[in-house]
Each structure stands twice: as C-alpha cells, then as structure tokens.
Specification:
With 228 residues, this protein is α+β, with helices and mostly antiparallel strands. The chain is built from seven helices and six strands, in the order ααααβαβαββαββ. Strands 1, 2, 3, 4, 5 and 6 form a six-stranded antiparallel β-sheet that branches. The chain binds flavin mononucleotide (FMN).
Length: 228
C-alpha cells in the first residue's frame, strides 16, 4: 500500500488520508507514524512518544529489568481478580505452532500450600505465599514427534506469570520441578495429576515481605553478532 499510495497519488493523498504533513511516513495501513495515536500507550501521538519517550514502553522495560525472585511473603491473601490477571498473562505466552500445551494448577488451600511447603521446602510455599501456581505441560496437546517443545512453551508462560506478578506489586519465584523425575512424580501424586500432565515448576505468589536487590546480569561478552 505504501508503494502504491506513493507511486500513484504521491504525498498529497497521504496528507489527505492521514492528516499528516511530515511527508516521510505514510504507512501501509494508511496511517501516519508521526501523527497516529501511539499503538503502545494510546495516550499520545507517535510524534510525542518519539520526542518524550513512550511511557508504556518504558514501564514494560522497567518491569522486566526490575523483576527479582521473591521468596518471603506476608501471608496476605490476594483477590480472585489478581489471580485471573496473572493467569491471563501466563496464557498469553507464545507456544510452538500455537499448541498451548499447558495446564495451570492454582493452589490456594492453606493445607495444600502447607503440604507443598513441607514436601518441597525449596518451593517456598510455606513462606506466607497467598497461592502457588503450578504450570504444567499437557503431553496430549504437545506437537507430535516434537513433544519436548512443551518445555519451552510452559517456560514462556511461567516468565509471563513472574513479570505480571511483579507489575502488580506481588512477589513470586520460579522453583524447579521438571526435569527432576522424583519431584515430578511426587507432585503428580499430591495433585492427582494424570501421567500426561507434567508439572514444570512451582511458583509461589504473594505479597512480598522482602525486597531483594535487583541483579545486574548484563554482560556484553555474552552477546555474539553473526558468528560466535
Ligand atoms: C529453572 C529454574 C529453577 C529454579 N529453582 C529454584 C528453586 O528451587 N528455589 C528457589 O528459591 N529459586 C529457584 N529459582 C530462582 C533462581 O534462583 C533465580 O531466578 C536466580 O537466582 C536469579 O535471580 P532473580 O530471579 O532474582 O533474577 C529457579 C529459577 C529457574 C529459572
């Protein structure tokens, strides 16, 4: 469309269609990169975002860069709406061939949380967590012949969950289950999971009772351009 608009009618039509007179940015969808509402923040034009920075982009990047593992919680409960928001973010993750080969166990029952904390002390479920989310792979939904892709898919969902928790002022930590066969079996037994539902990890979530330092992990020597 960009080429067609430019080629056939030139900048004048672009101005007419988009109301933009910057003469440089008539876009394929008929919009204009400068005057158009920013698709990210939807609060100001792209022109303003380019000049001042887009507050939403900054907030997303800030959220990624300040997430830390939280292992100590106050014991306060969180609302059903908060739990749903976390899960909506988890399920928004990418997955190979969009198979979404996942199931999510949400543990809110105090006794169950206590049992998880006792059985898997490393999971921190006994440290005042409001809930534990257990992202699982559903092998019956996995890609035929490439079943292990479920691990990538459920990992992406787990990271989304951690980032959402942080954005909502909650704390969370990824605690490992798969590929430790013993932990997988123990957890399957406790949660009554059929064999084809494989827990990847346990994620306790709650109101933080600690503020761990953010770790600076940037290391330019680990980045390789074009060849290793
Ligand atoms: C696959 C995996 C397994 C983990 N297992 C545990 C665990 O069993 N217990 C725990 O406290 N933290 C666990 N963590 C959290 C890591 O210790 C933590 O992400 C790491 O130290 C970096 O710290 P940060 O998350 O604050 O950036 C795990 C993280 C990953 C990705």
């Amino acid at each position: 469309m960009k080429g067609i608009v430019r080629g056939i009618t030139g900048i004048a039509l672009c101005v007419f269609l988009t109301g933009c007179s910057c003469n440089t940015c008539c876009k394929e969808d008929g919009g204009c990169c400068e005057k158009q509402e920013c698709k990210c923040c939807k609060k100001q034009t792209c022109e303003q975002c380019n000049k001042k920075g887009c507050s939403m982009q900054q907030a997303v990047i800030e959220n990624i860069m300040t997430r830390v593992s939280v292992r100590q919680f106050t014991g306060e409960k969180i609302s059903d709406e908060q739990v749903e928001s976390l899960l909506r973010c988890a399920l928004a993750a990418p997955s190979a061939m969009n198979k979404q080969p996942w199931e999510f166990m949400v543990i809110s029952d105090e006794e169950m949380l206590g049992l998880l904390g006792e059985t898997f002390p490393y999971s921190r479920c006994g440290n005042g967590a409001a809930i534990a989310v257990i992202p699982c792979g559903n092998l019956e939904r996995a890609i035929n012949g490439m079943e292990d892709f479920w691990i990538n898919d459920v990992s992406a969902a787990t990271e989304n969950l951690l980032l959402a928790a942080h954005a909502m002022g909650l704390g969370a930590v990824w605690t490992g289950v798969h590929p430790n066969a013993e932990r997988v079996k123990q957890l399957q037994d406790i949660l009554n999971l059929p064999e084809h539902i494989v827990p990847l990890c346990i994620v306790p979530v709650g109101v933080p009772d600690e503020q761990p330092e953010v770790k600076d992990k940037w290391d330019a020597s680990r980045i390789h351009y074009n060849t290793f």
